[in-house]
Specification:
By secondary structure, this protein is mainly α. The protein is built from six helices and no strands. The protein is elongated, with a radius of gyration of 26 Å. It starts with a helix and ends with a helix.
Length: 127
């Protein structure tokens, strides 16, 4: 058998395999996407709780208070909680979880984040 015949036979086999390969079977179905979302939410909520607890403990830590020079940082804990809750609500919606897309598409989240930056700046540099 010559090279052309062999290559022709190989390309025919490849075309048969390619024709039997169904690309749609590997696309995510709504059920799979929903299951992944539920699994991620099961891990996301405890991580949010740990982030809030960690931030709260950092705010009232004596070394943090001595570094900043005042003990008013604990007033930012509710603001951080609101920011994380707004972000969580956006993630649970119809977004695909892209953080930049989620943050930039929510005006309330942007406003509360700017408010947090202003409050932190005031606590660090004014008081």
């Amino acid at each position: 058998m010559d090279k052309a015949g062999k290559n022709g036979k190989m390309s025919t086999k490849f075309n048969n395999i390619k024709a039997s390969f169904n690309v749609n079977q590997f696309k995510q179905s709504d059920l799979t996407r929903g299951m992944i979302r539920v699994i991620l939410m099961c891990w996301f909520i405890p991580c949010l709780a740990l982030a809030i607890v960690s931030y709260s403990l950092w705010c009232v830590d004596p070394s943090t208070i001595s570094r900043i020079g005042n003990d008013y940082l604990f007033w930012t804990i509710p603001i951080v909680m609101v920011i994380l809750q707004l972000y969580s609500l956006d993630i649970e919606g119809n977004s695909y979880g892209d953080p930049i897309e989620v943050i930039l598409s929510d005006k309330k989240l942007i406003i509360v984040s700017i408010f947090y930056i202003v409050v932190i700046g005031g606590l660090l540099y004014v008081l």
